[in-house]
Amino acid sequence: MKVLVTGGAGYIGSHTVLCLLEEGHDVVVLDNLSNSNAESLIRVQEITGKQVALQEIDLLDSAAVHGVLRGGNFDSVVHFAGLKAVGESVVDPLTYYKNNVAGTINLLESMQSAGVHRLVFSSSATVYGNSENVPLTEKLHLEATNPYGRTKQHIEEMLNDLCTSDPTWAVALLRYFNPAGAHESGLIGESPVGVPNNLVPFVAQVAVGRRDKLFVFGGDYPTIDGTGVRDYIHVMDLAEGHLAALGHIQRNCGAFKWNLGTGKGSSVLEVVDAFGKAAGRSIKYELVARRPGDAAVSYADAAAALADLGWSARRNLEQMCADHWRWQVSNPNGYER
Ligand code: NAD
Ligand code: UFG
Predict the structure, then answer these.
(1) Is 74 a domain residue?
(2) What is the pTM of this model?
(3) Looking at the domain assignment, is residue 31 inside a domain?
(4) Exposed/middle/buried for 212, CB within 10 Å: 0-12, 13-18, 19+?
(5) Best label site of 62, 83, 166, 171, fewest CB within 10 Å?
(6) Percentage of the chain surpassing pLDDT 90?
(7) How many domains does the chain have?
(8) Nearest ligand to the C-alpha of residue 58?
(9) Does ligand 2 have an atom closer than 6 angstroms to the CB of 312?
(10) 175 lines ligand 2 (CB under 6 A)
(11) 96: exposed, middle or buried (C-beta count within 10 Å: 0-12, 13-18, 19+)?
(12) Residues designated catalytic
């Protein structure tokens, strides 16, 4: 199968490209490299021994996107490209709506005119907002609480409408929980620009000595140890979930939504402990005030993906930390040399 992967040079995209190549698919990446480095794809080629073409294009450049789809003879598109920092989206919402929503409209119009009607879309557990109905199921009402989350919610609604209007479309809406970890080779992984927003990359930078200590946001939640609980999913499990979803939409039309999570929550301090063990060093941390907008507990009901796709996460927190650490310690500055 020939697959176009938008945002394929990024963190989750590069791991999924690797899996697609290993399954024998032909892959073209479309990425403007605004939050990534082409080195990720060079390394994917090193690991797999297979070639991947990179089209350095912005999704907002509709003529260029059109050109790629028109001549490409693609079977399907996996759409990762987007901006993802919650705080930044609050400060600069228009940039988020333009990049994520308008960028997706450009992509869909180009797919429509090229007759490519199969899409896997990166949604997020953020669409559930701060719902307390854990485990979170796909049936819950969506109530994103920030502009980033609302871009995901709007795109999901747009894709539902598209599938209703034209029954030849097949779309998988994948709601990721908290991705972490890296490919076991330690050659590819997450390479955040600036101060990491997310827990695991921050902990990894403390472990490697790039940062002094972790600030734990809130120690008074009603959880096992007072710290926030999340569903951390290994990025390779997540990547494999995309292949399962791609398979499903080759055989079925319509819009499908699946949580991609493990179904198990871990607290911040449990992650700190597991990472410390993986790295063989203790992680310095300080308990500080809650981060505004954070939920106490979030984890997936992952039953639908198992029932429909035969997919479930196979890797645990220990393996995730070990793989994340292998990547971090051999690439202390990410892809920046
Ligand atoms: P990432 O930033 O590493 O990857 C996104 C990629 O998209 C980058 O390579 C970036 O350069 C590219 N991109 C952004 N805007 C573009 C544009 N206009 N044109 C072309 N390329 C563009 O992020 P990631 O963690 O790999 O996330 C991938 C997707 O998954 C995103 O849509 C994100 O919102 C979603 N998601 C991520 C998480 C997470 O915690 N990492 C959780 C839930 C959902
Ligand atoms: N945390 C800290 N210190 C930090 C960073 C995080 O204590 O420096 C805590 C948070 O308070 C939370 C947990 O670690 O309890 C996880 O926080 P993350 O920022 O890693 O993840 P979130 O669950 O807040 O959000 C992430 C993405 C969202 C996405 C969501 C679900 O940032 O965009 O996962 O996929 F929607």
Answers:
(1) yes
(2) 0.98
(3) yes
(4) exposed
(5) 166
(6) 97
(7) 1
(8) 1
(9) no
(10) no
(11) buried
(12) 148
